[in-house]
Specification:
Blueprint (H helix, E strand, L loop, with lengths): L5 E4 L14 E4 L5 E3 L3 E2 L11 H18 L7 E8 L5 H12 L5 E6 L10 E8 L1
Parallel strand pairs: 5-6
Antiparallel strand pairs: 1-2, 3-7, 4-7, 5-7
Helix pairs in contact: 1-2
Pfam families: Ribonuc_L-PSP
Protein name: 2-aminomuconate deaminase
GO molecular function: 2-aminomuconate deaminase activity
Length: about 130
């Protein structure tokens, strides 16, 4: 990790992770804590493509731009919450996710839900960060 505020831990005595996440994310004292609104797969013009994987890609572009706007990087992310209304294409998703976060990913929760804010939204991702 490039920053000295966030530490990721996977202790013994708990089950091995079943995906790309870390069981514990520790934040140093006096760090600035950021919460971000959930991001969706709209492009920069506000259009939401019908293709799920394009929504995934656009969502990570939006998350990257949010982090940059406050001088943070993906390794500052401490928690990822993912909500999807369709089954996630894990091969595609994991490539985008791992390219974004690198080898050691933040803590994560994934849930399949019946609906999101608009009918056209298939996935929403919320992040928390510290810097």
């Amino acid at each position: 990790m490039k920053n000295h505020v966030v530490t990721r831990l996977s202790p013994s005595g708990v089950s091995k992770e079943v995906g790309h996440y870390t069981h514990i994310t520790k934040i140093k004292p006096n760090a600035t804590f950021y919460t971000f609104s959930g991001q969706i797969g709209a492009d920069l013009g506000g259009d939401i493509p019908n293709d799920f994987n394009q929504q995934v890609e656009n969502t990570f572009i939006n998350i990257s731009n949010l982090l940059k706007s406050v001088d943070l990087e993906p390794d500052n992310v401490i928690k990822v919450n993912i909500w999807s209304i369709v089954e996630i294409d894990w091969e595609y998703f994991d490539k985008i996710y791992c390219d974004f976060f690198g080898e050691i990913s933040p803590s994560m929760t994934i849930a399949y839900v019946n609906a999101l804010g608009l009918d056209s939204i298939k996935i929403e991702i919320e992040i928390w960060a510290a810097g």
